[in-house]
Amino acid sequence: MSKIRILILLAAWATIDLGTSAIQAEVRPHEDTERAPRHPSRSALEGVAKLLEFQEDLCSGARPLGANGIRSLYDWGVRTIISVDALPPEDVKEFSGISLVHIPLSYSGPNDAQILDLATAYAMGRSKGKVFVHCHHGIHRAPTACALIGIASGISTQEQAMSRMRDAGTSPHYPMLWRSVKEQEPIHYLDIVNNIKPLPAAVQASDIASSMTRIDEAMTRLDLVHQNQWNVPSSHPDLAPAADAGFIAESLRKLQTRDDWQGLGIDPAQVQSAIDTATQLELLLLAHPQQLDVLSSQFERIAESCTACHAAIQSPVTAKPSINSEMMDYH
Hints:
Elements: H1 3-15, E1 52-55, E2 58-62, H2 66-76, E3 78-83, E4 99-102, H3 112-125, E5 130-135, H4 141-152, H5 158-168, H6 175-183, H7 189-194, H8 208-227, H9 241-255, H10 259-262, H11 268-287, H12 292-313
Parallel strand pairs: 2-5, 3-4, 3-5
Antiparallel strand pairs: 1-2
């Protein structure tokens, strides 16, 4: 790479806007091009749960609650929101001066391209103000993303990053999230500079057939644990039932946004019930894994919803794949 090319890229890194991910509106237009003012650290913001600072300009938390949550972040100095949740927060559209980037992560951890995009979004956003990373609960994937950003950017060690994940309450029941951080190395700054590009404000959900196949795979893995009295069987030590339950809820939430999903004749109330049940199963597996009857009841309710859904759309995706010891990807 020529010296001129490097200088151009470095200049672009310092000045580039997030392009298609910047959402314009009529609120606070006078601050659109200004760097956000620095404010003292906060442990809590109205409408933003589980807020945790990793760096002065990098923090994680739960999905902001409506416009009040977005406004709280804005007033605190946040100018970039990175959503690693299934769905980005729609209320960002009401605010100018806040850029939104959507990099949805699964509980299996991000791939290399996603990690590079996370580091790039942070590098592009930090010149304007704080960067806030959110997932649904603000406990598992968002802190993992911040930890990866810190290591990839060379501002945190693995030990420091994992310590903040523990502070956030990231559960050991998501082993692939921890593994991704433990194995992450710093990314050369030129690789980040070369990756500068407009990043999407919303990523389209995968096609319905693929999503349903992956949901069925997650149900198969959950059933193995279910049949073993909700203990991970020694023959499949890599299974992570809480991650699978969370994945099912996330996948259904994504499918709800697809136009072609709306025309399949599936009862929306039944889908929402399945989402709620899968979420409850995830939380129970994390907090109350000894409540075997309750866990089984929740699992059976999800299974009934899957059967009804397959029947409604007459999907050929009904065969459950076999499990082997290499099934570490909880997609």
